């Protein structure tokens, strides 16, 4: 494994402490809201590296650094999708920590007028054996917490519901029960099995057309109660078909981290808004690209965002559920946090060659405000884990 491209003899020794993190300044136009698309970045959490915990224990979160990263996203004009898959829900972030994250992020969003949507799911339940009644109660508890915080709810796909449901009618009944009691329009989340194998057969069928039909029926059953549908199937043709069948007042939020430029740009029949984990590391580039759409420059939008797809596809390569490791690596390299530690110890979920390639691709895009610091940190990581000379 070769050293990072920015290595130089004048840099600090890999064993020495790295330079303190400098604040990352937003661009001059960062306070201008995005107009042509509604765009959420699903945000990661920053672990507390000094907490005496275990991968199976409650998550220990560095709240100050976690919330500072939300301000970074808002400063670029992006919304924050909170306490979702990118924040390691069900993969290190337990419901107790997620509930606190929702409360804290909602308070910060109110203070700055930031756009915020928060995930409500069922992950306080055991992984197996929950009844439909228990799933409903768990959803209600989390939905109540999101709405009490004043945030837009995202009804996340539930592993427990996927295991307990016997067919489409169970989904229509349960989602209908939740939507009838929401105080503001919700986002429905279809997370495919490529992201979480436990969600195979969601909406009551392993056949995608039938599953799509059930989702559309739920939307049609509850006019005015659904803000949008977030689809994360990595199937752009299916997403386009779905968005053309949605009512005019219901958004299609792309969660496709492989094909997002073309889906956001859209076609003569419409476009997708966005709720994307890859916009966590790509925030400055993504916001700048959408501002080109705001100005009517679709070609400029594609020219700005298309080059980021290679990095996105690398981060989300199989097994896709481990993409969070690369996201947190890039946040560390960019100076948004002082360490590369994740809740649940998930920093070990990707190989050194994978992480090194993520660094190279991000560096080529100019994602690092301080390239020398990023190079030093990457070299230090490789040295500590034995990959510096490979």
How would you concisely characterize the structure shown here?
The protein has 390 residues and is an alpha/beta fold.
Strands, helices and their partners?
Layout: E1 39-42, H1 63-75, E2 79-82, H2 95-112, E3 116-120, H3 132-148, E4 152-155, H4 159-164, H5 168-181, E5 186-191, H6 208-221, E6 226-232, H7 236-245, E7 251-254, H8 260-265, E8 273-276, H9 283-294, H10 298-305, H11 309-315, H12 323-333, H13 352-364, H14 371-384
Parallel strand pairs: 1-2, 1-8, 2-3, 3-4, 4-5, 5-6, 6-7, 7-8
Helix pairs in contact: 1-2, 3-5, 5-6, 9-10, 11-13, 12-13, 13-14
Low-confidence stretches: 1-20, 22-30
Structural class designation: alpha/beta
Mean pLDDT: 92
The strand line-up of the biggest sheet is 1-2-3-4-5-6-7-8
Tell me about the largest β-sheet.
8 strands, parallel, barrel
Helix content: 40-55%
């Amino acid at each position: 494994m070769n050293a990072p491209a920015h290595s130089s003899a004048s840099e600090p020794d890999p064993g020495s402490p790295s330079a303190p993190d400098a604040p990352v300044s937003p661009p001059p136009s960062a306070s201008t809201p995005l107009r042509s698309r509604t765009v959420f970045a699903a945000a990661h959490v920053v672990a507390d590296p000094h907490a005496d915990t275990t991968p199976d224990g409650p998550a220990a979160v560095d709240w100050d650094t976690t919330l500072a990263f939300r301000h970074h996203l808002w400063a670029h004009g992006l919304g924050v999708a909170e306490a979702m898959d990118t924040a390691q829900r069900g993969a290190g972030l337990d419901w107790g920590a997620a509930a606190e994250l929702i409360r804290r992020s909602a308070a910060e969003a109110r203070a700055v007028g930031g756009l915020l949507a928060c995930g409500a799911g069922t992950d306080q339940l055991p992984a197996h054996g929950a009844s439909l009644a228990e799933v409903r109660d768990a959803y209600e508890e989390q939905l109540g917490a999101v709405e009490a915080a004043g945030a837009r709810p995202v009804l996340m796909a539930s592993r427990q519901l996927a295991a307990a449901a016997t067919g489409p009618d169970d989904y229509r009944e349960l989602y209908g029960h939740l939507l009838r009691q929401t105080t503001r329009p919700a986002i429905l989340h279809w997370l495919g099995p490529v992201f979480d194998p436990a969600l195979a057969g969601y909406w009551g069928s392993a056949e995608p057309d039938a599953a799509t039909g059930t989702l559309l029926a739920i939307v049609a059953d509850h006019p005015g109660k659904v803000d949008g549908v977030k689809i994360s199937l990595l199937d752009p043709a299916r997403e386009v078909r779905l968005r053309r069948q949605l009512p005019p007042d219901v958004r299609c939020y792309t969660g496709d981290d492989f094909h997002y430029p073309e889906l956001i740009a859209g076609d003569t029949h419409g476009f997708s808004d966005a709720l994307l984990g890859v916009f966590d590391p790509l925030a400055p580039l993504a916001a700048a690209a959408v501002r080109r759409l705001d100005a009517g420059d679709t070609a400029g939008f594609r020219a700005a965002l298309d080059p980021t797809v290679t990095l996105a596809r690398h981060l989300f390569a199989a097994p896709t559920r481990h993409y969070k490791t690369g996201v947190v690596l890039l946040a560390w390299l960019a100076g948004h946090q002082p360490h590369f530690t994740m809740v649940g110890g998930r920093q070990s979920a990707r190989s050194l060659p994978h992480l090194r390639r993520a660094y190279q691709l991000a560096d080529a895009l100019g994602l690092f405000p301080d390239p020398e610091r990023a190079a030093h940190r990457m070299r230090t990581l490789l040295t500590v884990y034995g990959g510096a000379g490979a």
